[in-house]
Amino acid sequence: MSAITFKNITRDFKDGGRTIHVLKDTNVEINSGEFVAIVGPSGSGKSTFLTIAGGLQTPTSGEVYINGQELSVLSEKEREKLRLNEVGFILQASNLVPFLKVNDQFNLFDRIMKDDRSDYRDELLEQLGIKELSNKYPEDLSGGEQQRVAIAKALYNDPTILLADEPTASLDTERALEVVDILAKEAKEQDKAIIMVTHDKRLLDKCDRVLEMKDGELNEVEE
Ligand SMILES: Nc1ncnc2c1ncn2[C@@H]1O[C@H](COP(=O)(O)OP(=O)(O)OP(=O)(O)O)[C@@H](O)[C@H]1O
User: PROSITE patterns from the xrefs (predicted)?
Assistant: First the structure.
């Protein structure tokens, strides 16, 4: 099933009197169960692609579909609901709240969602090998541990789509491969669509597809 579809997407930004065409007529379809890498030079529009895919910013023209639902026909509230239910984000800056212990990061989410997912939480933390970190603050965790907690947070709501912006940027090779293995496993075993922006060529073997953003266009890289 198509998780994310871009139809003739463009995204322009104004820079002084100049218009920069960051995305030019981008067409792509990413399916459930696929683990896809987005590569490309700095400033080529990878983060722009990811934030449009997750409904965080709107394109200048074209249509974006999340699980078959076109976004532009939804109200801001409906878009927010879809995003909250269907999309998990792992952003460049760690999305951990610095003054909350790991466990309380999840409690906060339960409170916001008026839900209690503690059974699923235990399972998730166990699966990611971070259950023993529950009582620690983010600053007491290594980069790899912080990133695994960030992944657990992104997965906590069981989203069908996971968007990750350089999730391994601060990690050494061993930890980076570990994180990518977790993402690959989530895509396959939980049938999630996972899109990862990365500069790290060592990780590409683990992905089902590699797309390159260059000169405003997104093209499949043949391996
Ligand atoms: N809100 C904005 N306003 C104006 N220009 C923007 C905005 N967001 C992005 N841009 C411009 O769009 C271009 C693409 O930015 P983007 O962050 O998507 O690239 P990127 O490929 O993710 O870069 P990097 O690899 O360095 O993170 C850049 O030239 C950037 O300056």
Answer: ABC_TRANSPORTER_1 (PS00211), ABC_TRANSPORTER_2 (PS50893)
